[in-house]
Amino acid sequence: MATNMKKKLICFLLVFALGLVPALAQAGVLTANAAKEPVATVTDWKETHKKIAENSKFNLYVCEDDLSLVVEDKATGHYMESSPSYDDGANNKTWQAYLASAVVITYIQGNTDTKQADLVKDNVQKKINYTDNGFEAELYWTKYKFGVTLKVELTDDGLVATIPDESIIEHSDTYIGTLAIYPCMGVSYLDQKEGYMFIPDGNGALIYLEDNEKRFNTGYSSMIYGDDIGFTESSVANLLWGRYEMLNDQNLTLAPVYGIAHTDDDMAYLAIVEDGAERATIEAQPNGVNVQYNRAYAKFLLRKRYTQPTSNNSTSGSFHLVEADRSHSDLTMRFLFLNGEDANYCGMANAYREYLLDRGELVMQEDNSYRTRIDFLGTEREDFLIGTKTVTMTTVEDIYEIYEDLAGVGVTDLFSLYKGWQKGGLYDLPITAYKADKKIGSTKELTQLIKDAESKNISFFLYNDALRINPDEQNATFNVIKKVNKKVFEESTYKEVYDTFRYLTPTRSNTLLNRFAKSYTKQGVGNVALAGITNTLFTYTYSNVAYSRFQAADSYVKAVEELDASTKLVMEEPFAYLWKNAEAFIDMPVYMSNYLYEDESVPFLSIVLKGVMPVYADYVNFEANKEEFFLKLIETGSYPSFYITKESAADLINTNSSDIYSSQYDVYKDEILQYTSELKAVNEAVAGAVITGHQILDNGVRIVTYSNGTQIYLNYSSAAQTVDGVSIDTMSYKVVGQDE
């Protein structure tokens, strides 16, 4: 009886509770569920920021608490923030501080701990001095005992933010690992702004400011001027049949730039990493990656951890170390703000071109005339009973015959690199003197070919990889770099004949280049196609002395300037700090990497360089979709390239050039003629002009506008299209002159 009464009482209490909960919730007494839901708030930046500078174009505002900025366009009233005024309420204190702070640091304590320091959640002593155009702020993190000075200046075209190298202090064993300056400049929430982030992937790529619905867990991250092999660990490649690499390498970041465009406000900026780029990364995080905000920024690397093996035997163990000294450089970000019709990626590219030309970092070349690039492979090597034997692909006499044959069908505007011309063949590196492989002909005959080509207006260059040394052919014990852990760096080729190469020290590269140039120019010739050092940069050690990427870059700049003084110099995929010495750009990428978060490929680098210097694309031979690639050449203003041999590519199957599966001249003659005929006509229509406009339409049509008024319509869609009264067939193009 008592048990039944207890059951009735429990049931009564349950019924009462179930009825009471909704009532309490409705009354606002019980809000547990509501407390879990983010509460969005909007802050009026005019209440938190004060105006500190202005010029004819912009007003600059700062919040003294976190040094966040607002840049206002005086003509339109539109603005960009470095900290979002819209808070979705979903972020923890660390992310809230990150989004607001002008300077965000990751610090290193011990060997494994990396955490965030900022201007919001940390106790930071601030001493702010206002200047005519901005401010200087001395910042000191009292807990970690490190500090920096941030200088901000409003300029005629935007904003410059700098942390001078001498202002960076560390007073304890807590070190600055990375540092970002205004990492949220131009930040936006989900799809509240229309526009995109521009990233320097390949020729250029866009990430739209749309709601990604948390599809992405990672964004774009790329080391400016390529990965630092001084810190890389060996990895096993994914090979097909044990010999062919399955994955392409990530595109090199050739220029230290990124940008954000708010197209609904006709406002954009191009960010240039002006100082410190040699050791910085470009980051672009679309919404959904950690937080729901779109942001792009540069991250400077001051110190890194690395793995130190306990012995030469990699299986015997290792431990972690932190670099003994941080990198030394001013850290400078320049933001070029754009409005109106220039507030887009094309405006960014045009602004970058003018910036480089004004500073002398880019030089307008006298000869930008169209030429079809025909590269030749001389000799290779394959394994033999003892050592190797020569595989001869294209001799000097063969080149004469090919040139004569092309001239017979009207193809005379040519540009050529000769690879594998040197004694020992393509991979007998480094080249220490001007001496031809006897299998292609004598050095005297090669010299005469270069002179004869020049007399026929053919640009003929000898290819020289000044970076690598082949330990199977030359003594590679000395003058080669070691990684920061003091282990010799070795580049794996995954090929049969020569499976590894080593890298020369920058000083040694310079010495050998000078030696080669003296013996070369002594013969009255001097056309050099430089490779290797043009697109490789690293931290390294040599003779127990550590050298930074800044020092390596300075050495390469010196080497290139000295070589340029005595030769005519073209470069293979050069980094931006070498562009001023390049008379032509070789192997320009025309695509992006097609990461999941990338929405559009754009010809940013081509817009910068077209009309300034000749630009040659990658080889036509190895493109799977040649129809699309042909249109890309027209869109980017790039000249076509062919890798040609007299003999069949089948002869290369047992060499390090086994990935060249098609190269025989007889196979490509008609294609060379077709490309030359069409592309020469297109380029004659835009001769002497630069690209001033580029549009991407929803129907698959792209429009390229040149400074002389010529427009090129390209249709990448599967159906014919009509735009502006211009009809374009599927996978085709039309050139429209200024008077049409």
> What's the architecture of one domain in CATH terms?
Distorted Sandwich
Helicity, as a percent range? 10-25%
SSE-based structural type? alpha+beta
Q: Please summarize the sheet with the most strands.
A: 11 strands, antiparallel
CATH topology of one domain: Beta-galactosidase, Chain A, domain 5
Extract low-pLDDT stretches: 1-35, 234-247
Describe the oligomeric state of these chains in a short phrase: single chain
Overall geometric form: globular
CATH level 1 name of one domain: Mainly Beta
Strand content: 25-35%
Distance between the termini: 103 Å
Mean pLDDT: 92
What is Rg? 30 Å
Number of helices: 12
Work out the number of β strands.
Answer: 49
Describe the structure.
This protein is an alpha+beta fold and 740 residues long. Among the domains are: 45-228 and 240-358, Beta-galactosidase, Chain A, domain 5 (Distorted Sandwich); 685-740. Strands 9, 10, 11, 12, 13, 16, 17, 21, 22, 27 and 41 form an 11-stranded antiparallel beta sheet that branches. The chain has an 8-stranded parallel beta barrel with strand order 28-31-32-36-39-40-42-43, surrounded by 4 helices. Strands 7, 8, 14, 15, 18, 23 and 24 form a 7-stranded antiparallel beta sheet that branches. A hairpin with a 3-residue loop joins β9 (124-130) and β10 (134-141). The longest helix is centred in the N-terminal third of the chain and has 26 residues, at 2-27. It is globular and about 75 Å long. The protein starts with a helix and ends with a strand. Mean pLDDT is 92; it is low at 1-35 and 234-247.
